[in-house]
Design goal:
By secondary structure, the chain is an alpha+beta fold.
């Protein structure tokens, strides 16, 4: 697994965020949320400029949001999608290079690093930012930023 274990501090910008939310175990809810979101992307993209794909999640209770960032606040949303203006903020960024199948293991390692280093974490969403497009990028070259909300 190709995960950098020395995080960088980054500032995530305020973001127009459209998403599908699921509550419960990530193993089942995350893939289902993404499948449902991808079905709605053509309708959303017809009227809004998608600027990125990002998941937001909280560990307890387990809340998972599969979503996209938009250039502007949407006027209308396809049924099944929700909108929020995510406030952004300071995050510790870990970077995984490789297939999405490694995300569970990488996220687990990030949680271990948080515990081992006593990294100060604020009560906010964790992020996974999918840097490149899996439709055009070989799996071993996929880049995912795992962002931990930091004090």
């Amino acid at each position: 697994m190709n995960l950098n274990e020395q995080p960088q501090i980054v500032q995530w910008p305020e973001t127009h965020y459209v998403f599908i939310e699921r509550v419960g175990p990530f193993q089942t809810n995350a893939p289902q949320a993404w499948q449902d979101l991808h079905k709605l992307i053509p309708a959303l993209a017809a009227s809004d400029q998608i600027t990125g794909y990002t998941s937001l999640y909280k560990m307890g209770p387990q809340v998972y949001r599969a979503g996209v960032s938009l250039a502007f606040r949407p006027d209308q949303l396809p049924e099944g999608l929700a909108y929020t203006k995510f406030s952004g903020g300071k995050f510790s960024r870990f970077v995984l290079t490789g297939p999405y199948e490694n995300l569970g293991k990488a996220s687990g390692r990030v949680m271990e690093i948080i515990a081992e280093t006593k990294l100060p974490v604020r009560d906010d969403y964790f992020l996974e930012n999918y840097v490149n497009d899996p439709r055009t990028t070989p799996p071993e070259q996929l880049v995912t930023e795992i962002l931990v909300p930091t004090l």
